[in-house]
Protein: ATP-binding cassette domain-containing protein
Amino acid sequence: QTAIELNGLRKTYGGSGKSAPKEALKGIDLAIPAGSIFGLLGPNGAGKSTTINIMAGLVTKTSGQVRIWGFDQDVNPRQSRASIGVVPQELNMDPFFTPRAALEVQAGLYGVPRSERRTDEILARVGLLDKAEAYARTLSGGMRRRLLIAKALVHRPPVLVLDEPTAGVDIALRQMLWTYVRELNAAGTTIILTTHYLEEAQQMCDRIAIIDAGQVVACDATVNLLARL
Ligand code: ADP
Ligand code: ADP
Structure:
């Protein structure tokens, strides 16, 4: 089964008014197999965030086709949105929200019935149960990152996308995130992560696509790809 399929995906930013158009994606074709840990690797500005923000439904595409867990984003927008959880790169959050409130609101947004919410279980999973009632403004960067992962999981999506999950993160937290991501994957979640560190993609991912200037320049099993570099 294919978790995510992108066909001829294009995105041009701006172009109206004074800003010159910026062609961020120039026709991306990708098939991400279910069950994998898949890395989108590329330099800053390559188009990684744009690609995942389109998958997440946060940025509108200019043209092309996006299928998530078999659901075409244009034909089945609700099912396709329900099949993916996204952990953003930015750690911004409402300073007076608590982790418990953040998860409850997220569950409400995704229509998860109260009887099926697992707020304490998810908080415990990311090591934040003892901070359930703390204001977000008191949480460290590492705690915020873990809260954002918890939020992305409340509706039990089969696909979890992490945008630069370890950017600016120290070694201890990085190891913890990697372990956690591997556990989620072993439990059946397909993982997609973006990174500009080859080392991270190499250690974490079983398949890697290299994106440069809005195009896929290589895509293969990690062992094959590294053999060619
Ligand atoms: P990456 O995640 O690989 O660093 P991005 O997807 O963020 O790349 O950016 C791809 C290109 O699109 C870059 O040239 C970036 O400057 C441009 N871009 C990204 N977001 C916007 C935006 N909101 N408006 C205009 N240009 C943008
Ligand atoms: P913990 O939640 O594990 O106690 P810390 O507060 O020690 O986490 O932060 C863990 C690491 O997270 C820090 O060493 C730092 O590298 C990283 N970090 C802190 N703030 C940010 C941030 N704004 N963006 C990304 N990473 C951050």
Notes: Residues 144 and 192 are 20 Å apart (CA to CA). The pocket of adenosine-5'-diphosphate (ligand 2) is lined by residues 91, 140-143, 168-170, 173 (CB under 6 Å).
